[in-house]
Amino acid sequence: MLREKYDSADKRISKQFVRAFEDGKDWRVVAKHDGVNYQTVYHQIHADELRYERLPRSETQSKSLDYMETDQIVTWLEEDPTVTLELLQARVKAEFDKNVSHTTIGNHLDCRLITLKNFHLIPFGMKNSNTKERRKYSVLKMFKLDRLEDCIYWTDERNLDLFFPRTMEQCTEDTRSCLQICYNRGRSRI
């Protein structure tokens, strides 16, 4: 089965329409002669730029950062370590004229200068000296009652986690980014 009309005109025919319009000739006659719809030619003439003259999306400026730009970002961070990724994103756009996301910048900086970590939530009074003293007093009282065998006490795993903060003692200093949360949710408390 033969095809009657093409949905879109090729580049050569599109140039003929635009050239006829720019020369002041009747572009409708050229469109009718080539078998192209009036509306198609009208949109091609009144478009800001022709579709065939646009660059493909893949040939535009590269979004990824190269080694020189990543080294420059590391230099910026060494000068001011309090800069956030959003501010770095704005500075990269201003300096290198590249629109990259803050996730991409974080991926390029990962294992070079900084490592992004999730927050480790700890109860509000976990490192408080008053809470540690109360915890120590409660554990000593519990052991004393156990030796006397006067009463039966019951503790579950969550209470033991509060009595013995082994997860907090095992990790070395500055290995987690801790964020304190309030007491109203989470594990049981003393």
UniProtKB/TrEMBL annotation:
SUPFAM superfamilies: Homeodomain-like (SSF46689). This is Uncharacterized protein. It comes from Fasciolopsis buskii.
